[in-house]
Specification:
This protein is of the alpha/beta class. Among the domains are: 9-17 and 116-238 and 270-287, 3-Layer(aba) Sandwich (Rossmann fold), CATH 3.40.50; 311-345. It is 41% helix and 10% strand. It contains 17 helices and 8 strands. The chain has helices at residues 9-15, 27-30, 38-45, 72-75, 90-98, 144-153, 166-171, 175-180, 196-204, 217-224, 240-245, 253-259, 262-272, 286-293, 301-307, 312-325, 328-345; strands at residues 58-59, 85-87, 104-106, 122-129, 159-164, 185-187, 207-212, 228-231. Strand 2 (85-87), helix 5 (90-98) and strand 3 form a beta-alpha-beta unit.
């Protein structure tokens, strides 16, 4: 029997950092680099009380699987090739530089810079993580079959809960049907939640087993933090219409064709074959998580302050530059330059 026979979802939620919403930067500036409170995590790692005004550059906010090295721009969410880019792994640096990006550095993903939760892992507990939707999705895939499959195995575990992303909750996915089957729901990550990464780490350090229907960043995160991971059940289908509606993929229809090719599917099966197992036989492989998340490239606080230009001098010059660029004189000059170039081309 479980060491926590009377554990409830309220108990689980009380263990987690609270949701703390913040205002995201404009996409044209961040390209998602501040998603999930990444810069707040970095500032804390650096020993800073708040995020400096100086934006360090585009920071990859989720894992990019090796079998999807198809289009460099997609890996950094459409960031310009002139921008500074921070990615997880050295192989991604090579891929981006081959694609024309010049200023790229591997530093690991934001979640590896969170602090340990210190929570006790709950014996024989299962965290279910169904595929999450994106705000740009135009079609909602079916969910009933996967939930039925989870219900059929719940008695193998002493405690089962589902983690549903904030976006899925907003779209009405998963929650009601899980509730009808008696499976409690935990709010997962939201892109505008400053504590999203700390919440996810706390979950992965709390549950013994984590299962999902398809690969996503959560698979590598769970491995990294020591959960026993499986990819099991009927997969939520990836729909071409949803991918083409994503701003990162939309400009590259040929890349989307390759994404849905048999060759990409074959590579995915090869990479993930060891994880395709029953949830009660979940794989414990911290080293695999470390490899995918770029743990070997994790920066010390001093190294991160240097890389992000969050030194006293860097912060000061960044503030000055930002204020100059936001001034009326600068905006007027920039508008005049654009008109000049437009007339010259005409």
């Amino acid at each position: 029997m479980s060491a926590h026979p009377n554990l409830t979802i309220t108990d689980i939620n009380s263990r987690l950092p609270p949701v703390s919403e913040f205002r995201l930067m404009p996409w044209s500036r961040s390209y998602g680099g501040d998603y999930y409170g990444a810069l707040k995590v970095a500032a804390k790692h650096c020993g800073l009380g708040e995020v400096p005004e100086r934006y360090p550059g585009n920071w990859q906010h989720g894992t990019w699987p090796p079998w999807q090295k198809i289009q460099p721009e997609v890996l950094v969410y459409g960031a310009p090739k002139s921008s500074r880019c921070f990615v997880a792994r050295p192989d991604e640096v090579v891929f981006l530089k081959e694609g024309g990006y010049r200023d790229v550095r591997a530093i690991g993903l934001p979640i590896i810079y969170t602090q340990p939760s210190g929570l006790e892992r709950i014996p024989n507990s299962l965290l279910v993580m169904p595929t999450h939707s994106l705000v740009t999705d135009v079609i909602q895939p079916p969910t009933s079959r996967y939930i039925s499959e989870i219900e059929s195995i719940r008695n193998r575990f002493n405690f089962v809960a589902a983690c549903v992303s904030a976006q899925c909750i907003a779209r009405g996915m998963w929650v009601d049907e899980l509730a009808r089957r008696g499976i409690p729901v935990i709010r997962g990550a939201g892109i505008d939640d400053a504590n999203a990464l700390a919440r996810m780490r706390a979950l992965f350090e709390s549950f013994e087993y984590v299962t999902t229907d398809t690969y996503g960043s959560h698979v590598s995160y769970a491995l990294y933090f020591g959960a026993k991971v499986s990819i099991w059940g009927t997969a939520t289908p990836a729909l071409r219409e949803n991918v083409l509606s994503d701003g990162a993929w939309a400009p590259f229809p040929e890349a989307v064709d390759k994404l849905f090719s048999e060759e990409t599917a074959r590579l995915e099966r090869e990479y993930l074959k060891t994880l395709r197992t029953d949830p009660w036989n979940g794989v414990l492989d911290v080293s695999a998580g470390k490899l995918m998340l770029g743990h070997e490239k994790k920066l010390t606080p001093r190294e991160m302050r240097q890389a992000f230009r969050w030194t006293p001098f860097g912060v000061l010059t960044g503030v000055i530059r930002q204020r100059v660029r936001s001034s009326q004189v600068w905006r007027a000059g920039s508008a005049a330059k654009r008109r000049l170039f437009a007339n010259a081309k005409g």
